[in-house]
């Protein structure tokens, strides 16, 4: 494993990328390998009934979350990416094709309809198809990707950018099992 912090271990990991890229799954797998706790940002952002917090409340929540000594955070939320990257030692960016991400979002919204993603969404936020969100996924590479890549370019920690799921799988498979101390 690359040297990540002053002691060479991952302690604060940001996983970002287009919705549907597999950020939450990657976070769970990485957590199993490292022992780092996962913070699913969706579960902290959304309020019952898919209500959004104010920008001020969301930034305050994010400041509390990043103050924790160890974590894996999955989710985008571009308005607070700067805070997460300043606190992180490692960034994993899933730069997967639109077709793959859109297919996964569609599958998740249809197969999970009316249910919840345990631990990933708060109570009162049932899985559903949402056309504006799906449009966001379809347009992500054109409208948001460059902003994310610019954040990666100035990130001072260790960055891993994966353009194919098999690259991510290979990376995760290369990590030693066992908790990070």
UniProtKB/TrEMBL annotation:
InterPro entries: Cytidylate_Kinase-2, P-loop_NTPase. Coiled coil: none annotated. It comes from the Bacteria. SUPFAM superfamilies: P-loop containing nucleoside triphosphate hydrolases (SSF52540). PANTHER family: TOXIN, YALI0E33011P. This is Topology modulation protein. It comes from Roseibium aggregatum. The lineage of its organism: Bacteria, Pseudomonadati, Pseudomonadota, Alphaproteobacteria, Hyphomicrobiales.
